[in-house]
Structure formats: structure tokens, C-alpha cells
Amino acid sequence: MAQQFLKKSALAAALVSLGVGMSVLAQPTPSTSPGSGPTPSKSTSGGPTPSTSKSGGPTPGSGMSSSDSSKSGSSKSGSLESGERKFIESAAHDGMAEVQLGQIAQQKAQSPQVKEFAGRMVTDHGKANDELKTLASNKGVQLPTDTDKSHKSKADKLNKASADKFDKDYMDDMVKEHKKDVKEFEKQAKNAKDADVRAFAAKTLPVLQDHLKMAQAAQQSVKSSGKSASAGSSGASGSSGMGGSSSGASGSSGSSSKAGSSK
Predict the structure, then answer these.
(1) Which domains does the chain have, with CATH numbers?
(2) Who's near 192: CB < 8 A, 6+ residues apart?
(3) CA 119 – CA 246 distance, rounded (Å)
(4) Model pLDDT for residues 55-114, shown as the tens digit of each residue
(5) pTM
């Protein structure tokens, strides 16, 4: 009896061990992705967590907002100080005006020296205007496309000036404008913080200084010719007056001779 009991107990223990083993084998194994890596974890909000690069940071394009990208693109326009931006815009207005007034002077000027000066204005300032456009584009500065009201008024006044006054009016204005321009370009050539603005001012300054010398010479020539013309006119009228006196004297002489003969 005892032996049979032991056999039954051993059999029961074996069955129990076999059942435990079967239950372990029956449990499902964790699923894996096709690449044998763990499935992507999800954030508490339900969406997938952001993917990261090998360095641990966000993948390219995921961290920069539209405002950040716009700031990086506008760095060129923000690189100039307000004074330098104003200098570029003012130089553009003046440059266009010099070309426009030069073209008017080429048509209306009486003096060959004034015409020659006007031709230099058109050529030199046209070239400087092109260089200024390149500088402004690189710095993100929007240049005016036409002259301002002050320059328009000046051009209109010269267009209406009479032929005998045009040369003087034009050269007086050119001397005044180039004195102002030389002073401003000297300032920017020395003090501009932006290297490109400083280089443009330094390169253009000698041309403006040469223009000022030419303008002063032409202005003096116009004044001298005006004085000569005035003196010639007054001399001619004086001679006419003397001729009248002479004829009057001869008339008196004739009267005296007649009186003598009657006696």
C-alpha cells in the first residue's frame, strides 16, 4: 500500500510540473518591428514622440519655426545703421537728379564749357548710380525709383529758365549741390561702420571733388562772359549817345554858319 501511495504521489508531482511548463510556453512573446527594434513609444498626448538625430537633437527641419527662418533671411537689411541707410537713399536721389539735370543742360546750355560739364554729370553719375544699386541690393535697401519733390521742382525751374539765364542758374546749383555731396561722402568714407558703404563713399569721393572743381570753373566762366556781354552792351549804348551829341554839335555849327551868312 505504501509503495502504491508513493508512486501516485510521484505521478501527481510530475503532472503538476508538466502543467506549469505548458502554461509558460503558452504565454505570447512581445511583438517587434520589422527591424527587430522596439516599437515607437507614444507620448502622453497620444502622438508619436519626435524622432531624434544621431547627435540626440531634433531632426533637420523640425526645430526652426517660420519666424526664425524669416529673421535669418532679413539679416542683410538689418545690418546697416539708420544713418548709413539714409546716406544710400539720399545718394540715390542726388545721383538721379544729377543725370536728369545734366541731360537738360546738354540741350539748353549756351556755353561749351557748361555743356561739357553736363556730359560728365550724365556719364559719371550714371555709373555711380549703377554701383549704388548693387550696394543697396546686397544690403537689402530699397532704392527710390525717381527723384524727390525738391529735385523735381529744381528740374522744372531749369526747364523754364530763359536761355540767357540757364547757364548761370545751372552752374550755381551744381556748385551748391557738389559742396554738399563732397562733405557727406567725406563723412561716410571716414566714419561709416559698414565696410562696403565706407568703400563706396571712398571710391566715389574723388569723382565728386573733381566735379566740384569743374563746376566752380564753369561757374566763373559764365560769370565772366556775362560781365563781358554787359560791358559790351553798355559801351555800345554809350557810343550811340556820343554820336547823337556829335550830330547835335554839327547841327549847331550849321546854324551858326547860316546866321553869319545872313549878316
Answers:
(1) 80-234 (1.20.1260.10)
(2) 84, 87, 198, 201
(3) 51
(4) 444 444 444 444 443 333 333 545 789 999 999 999 999 999 999 999 999 999 999 999
(5) 0.59
